[in-house]
Amino acid sequence: MIRFEPTFFLERNRDIDEVTLRAIAREVRKDILKMTSAVNSGHPGGAMSATDVIVTLYYYKMRHNPENPKWEKRDRFVLSKGHVCPALYSVLARTGYFPLEKLNEFRKLDGDLQGHPDMNKTPGVEINTGSLGHGIGAAVGMALGLKLSKLDSKVYCMIGDGEAQEGSVWEATMAASHYNLDNLCVILDNNNLQIDGPVDEVMSIYPAMEKWKAFGWHVIEINGHDFEEIKRALDEADTVKYKPTMIVAKTVKGKGVSFMENRAEWHGKALPPDLLKEALKELGGIV
Question: For the Transketolase N-terminal domain, which residue ranges apply (predicted)?
Answer without folding.
Answer: 32-284
